[in-house]
Design a protein that fits this description.
Blueprint lengths: L1 H27 L8 E6 L12 H17 L4 E7 L15 H4 L12 H11 L3 E6 L17 H4 L4 E4 L2 E4 L4 H17 L4 E4 L8 E3 L2 E3 L4 H7 L10 H23 L4 E4 L23 H5 L3 H6 L5 E2 L14 H10 L5 E2 L1 E4 L1 H4 L1 E2 L7 E2 L2 H9 L6 E5 L11 H9 L21 E8 L2 E7 L12 E7 L15 E5 L3 E4 L5 E7 L9 E4 L2
Parallel strand pairs: 1-2, 1-15, 2-3, 3-6, 6-9, 9-10, 10-11, 12-15
Antiparallel strand pairs: 4-5, 7-8, 13-14, 16-17, 17-20, 18-19, 18-21, 21-22
Amino acid sequence: MEIQNINIMRKLIFSIFLVVITVTNIYSQTNEPKREFRGAWVHTVGNQKYREMTVDQMKQHFTDLLDEFEKAKINAVIFQVRPQADAFYANSIEPWSRFITGTQGIAPSPVWDPLQFITDACHKRGMELHAWFNPYRVTSNDKEVLCSEHLYHKKPYLFVKYGKQIYFDPGEPEAREHTLKIIADVVKRYDIDAVHFDDYFYPYKIKEKNVIVDFPDSKSFAKYGAKDGFTQKNRNDWRRNNVNLLIEALSKTIKEIKPWVKFGISPFGVWRNASSDPTGSNTTAGCENYDDLYADIKLWVEKRWIDYNVPQLYFDIGHPAANYETLIEWWSANNYGENLYIGQDISKTVKVKSRTNEKEFLNQLPQKMKMVRSNKNIHGNVWWPGYSIPRNPDGFTDSLKNTYQTKIALMPKYRHIDTIAPDTVKNLRFEKNGESLILKWDAPTTTDEMQKAVYYCVYLYPHPFKEYPSREPFEYPVTITQNTEFEITINHRCYAVTTLDRLQNESKPAIIIEY
């Protein structure tokens, strides 16, 4: 009997120890924001490894990648679905990407749909899927062969060659219409959460013998320049207008199809240097969005043609031409109340060469995270490249897991789209399933697609009942799930469940206490 009591006591002490550890971990996480964008870019352009994989291997590759993202509390995957006027999804408008099988226009065998697979896999994990398109690029070099079904062979007047690459001519209205058609098709057919562009609009300028080669759009300018109200002297304004027309039209098109689908852009990190425009940043960067890529990102944010902005601040703190600290403050001051996330290069953050000691490398992640989280105008980060996260370069992923992203985060609110909270879940209850105890609830019903229950957030409230409701349980999220049940692993607690709609507006909690 004495031995039995000792064993019971040991089990009790061990159980208390586990509860203490769990509660301690939960308390240690409360300094993280409840809402924060935590994205990862997954590029497909230039990727040569997929063509060596079978379909099952590709599926496993993406599954493993998303599992690692989930462990690091990534909540948005920005997946490149149109790298070069081709497709990482099944469609009849543009050919299958050559980066899948090695040959453009050749479908994977057996046929499967990478975009559908990744969208479903992200949503299963409570992550958003942002479909990433390149609007103008057709080839990366002069060795690539476009398949016979490619639009290039049917309507060559829509394209130009610049350097060794082929591009759509942004000055051709029909080229814009084609891009709108492509993206509208994806928005209609797939349950994506956002459309995403990166920094490639008019291409980065090419130099030959130290002289900048002008983009070869003389034919389209001759056809449309004067008609659009521009002269040769303001040809660059015409180019900017061409991109503006695409962005504005795309913004309207997306919202007409699905009002909840966001439109986000990740521009080069410098809009304009102060030497070009007194309202620009105090930088001396060799490239500017406005003057070189003809991308007036500041205008798009101000006009609310886009729903979020992710400037690529791939610079270190103290960079002489483009100081990260200078730029993060400039973008913060010029975000017009819109959602602002910071594009972060992993390798240029955790391993920065010292400017005073060439043998020394610095980890600037703590400083950069502090700058992001202490600025009320900034709402998160996007990490480049996402493929690095499973590799844990210089301990980066460990830092996310153990310090900066130790608990899940909801998406930032998109106040100009929708802020109406959905209805609360119904009939929250405990049910036994063999030895397991299951927390279950019923979904609220609605005919309003914007208020539809897309996810549920489960919270564990670690205090005894007598302290509730003096504190809300919202700082202790356990999971974001599509399911209407959750297996209980810690006894004698208060649980809360909330509904999340398509924009992750959150309902009032349904609460169940102990059992």
